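Q: Can I see a sequence and its folded structure?
A: Here is a first one.
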Amino acid sequence: MIFAQKVTVHVVGIGLDGSAGLSASARQIVEMAALLVGSDRHLSYFTQQSCDRWVLEDVTAAILEIRRWLALNANLEPNAETFSPPSPQLIVILVAGDPLFYGWGKLLIAQLPAAKLTFHPHVSSMQLAFNRLQIPWQDAHFVGSQGLYFEELTAKLKLGVEKIAALVDEIHTPAALANLVQALDLPTRYEFWVCENLGSADERVGCRTLSALLEESFAPLSVVVMLRVSGMATVESWDLEKLPLLGVPDGAFIGCGDRPGLTVEREVRVLVLGQLALQSGQVVWDVGAGNGAVSIEVARLFPQSQVYAIEQTVSGISAIEFNYTRFGLQNLFSIHGTAPEILHRLRPPDRIFIGCSGGGLTKILGVCALRLLPGGSMVLVLDVLEDVASVLSWMGDRVRREPHWSYRILQVQLSRSLLAGNLTRFDPLRPVSIVTIDRLLD
C-alpha cells in the first residue's frame, strides 16, 4: 500500500514580525514540520524547532531536496502491528509575504505536484505599503524584483499610470529606479514614497525627492510607491531660461490629464520641425495638439508667426493653456474643437502639423488641403500602417485631380539609452512615419 498522499508541502508566508505575526493555524503547521526550509532570517524565528532544516540559498537546490523527501517518503508502509498509515510528513517552506504575489509560489507550482502544495499567505509588503499610506490599491500597477523589472517599470512610466508600486532589493535599488525615471524625461511626474522594513519594529515610511533617492541609503527590504502628480508641481523645477531654443525636453511640459503618456517626443519633434520648413511670419495649425509641445516649439522659434493649437479634449486644452502661459508665449492660441469642423473658422495656414486625427484622417486632410495656402506643407506623424495607407490613397486621388501635390515619407525608429541598474540599455521610442505633403505653387 502506498501512502504518498501523506507527504505534503506547506508554503507559509511570514512577515518581518516573525512568528508573532503568524496565525494560530499557520504557527501550528510550522511546529508540525519534519523539514523546515527558509532563509537564514526566516529560520531564525524558530530556533527551538526540533526538525530537519534547510537554508534556502539556492531555490533549485531546495526544490531538489524537497523532491528527494517526497521520493523517500512515497513508499512508506503501514505500521506492521496496527496496520495504521505512517504519520503525516510535513515539509514547510517559509517565504516572505504572500508566496503567490511576486513570491516563490509560481516556481513551486511549476516544479512540484500541485496536489502536494498548500499555501498559507501572509500580508504582502505591497498591501502593507498602501495601507500605511491610506490609499486604495485595487487600481495600482505592480513591479516585482524578478523578471523584466526595468522593462516593465519603463512601460508603466511611459503610460503615465496613476499608481505604481515597485519592490526594491540590492540590485533594483531606489537609486536605480530614480536613474531610470530621470533618463526617461517624461512629461508625467511622480511622488515617491519609500516604505522600509514594513511590519517590523524599525519600519519607516516617508516621501522622497528624486535627488534623495539617489543620495540616501535605504533598507534592502523596501517598497517604493509612485503616485502621479498633476498640475504645476510636475514642471516647476525647470528653469525656462536655460532650456534650449530647439528641442525642449519632454519633462518641461505638463502632460494631458487623461492621456499623461501621450506626447510627441523631443527627438521626433525636432524631425517634424525640420520637415515643416518653417519661416517667420507664417500661420501654423497644430491639429490634434495633445499637450501642445509641437505648437510651443514653433511659437518659441518664430515669435512673429501665429500658431493655432487645435485640441478636442478638455484635459488637452488645459495642458496647452498651462504650458504656453508658463512659457510666456503671446503668439499661440488654443482652439477647443473637433477637426475638421473647427478648421473652417481659422485663418488659412502656411504650415499644418497633424499629430492626432481622432479617426477622421481623410476628412481632415480634405479640409486642410482646401485651406492650405499655395507653397504650403502638411506634416503628419502616423504610428499605424492603416493611417499611412489612407494618406497614400488620399494622395493618389488628389494628384489625379490636382497635379501640384507631392509627398515624401520618413520612417523613424529611435531609441534612447537608459540606465537599468548597473547596465545601460536602449529603450525604443514609438516607431512612427512622418509624412510630408507639399502643395506646390500654382
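Q: Show me another, different protein.
A: A second, unrelated one:
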Amino acid sequence: MRKIEIVGFKRETLGTKSAKDLRNEALAPCVLYGGKDQLHFAVPMILFRDLIYTSEVAEVELNIEGEIRRAIIQDAQFHPVSETILNVDFLEIVDGKPIKIDVPVKVIGNAPGVQKGGKMVQKLRKVTLRGLADNIPDFVEADITGLDLGQTLKVSKLKVENVTILNSLSNPVATIDIPRALRGKLNN
C-alpha cells in the first residue's frame, strides 16, 4: 500500500457545534479508533485530496501533535449538497491484527472474445480483503487472457497472497458480452 502522511491536532471540545465550527474553518473532524484508545482530532480538508478522491488504497501516517500512528480510512461522510467533508473515521493499524479494506480491481490481458468483437464489461471494481496491513496490495489483478465470447471471470479465479478475499467467490469480476450484431451471426 502507498503511504500518505496527514498532520492534525487534537480537538479540545466534542459535539455538533464544535464540529460545525471546525468545518467553517476548512477543518475536518476526525476520530481514530481500533487501538488502545480513541483519539478525536481535526485535519485541514485539503490534505484529504490525495486520499479520499482516488480509487487507490493508502496507509495513513497520522501525525497528531507529534504523536505518530498508522491507520486506514474506515469511513468518510460528505454533505449531501456541497460535498464538503463532514467527518472522517480512521481505523488504527495494530501490529499482528488483521484489517478489512476495499482494494481496486485492475483488469489485465487481452481476451480472445474481445478480439472477435465482444465487449469486456468490468462488473466488480473493488474487492474486500482481510489481512495484515503489510500484506495488503495496492490493487488486485484480474487476468482476462483466457475469456472468450460470453465467458465470465469470477472472484474465485483472483490470485492474492497472504490475504483473504471476503467477496462471494461466485461474483463476476469481468464478462465478455456478445454484441447484438454478433449474436445474429453466431446463431446462423
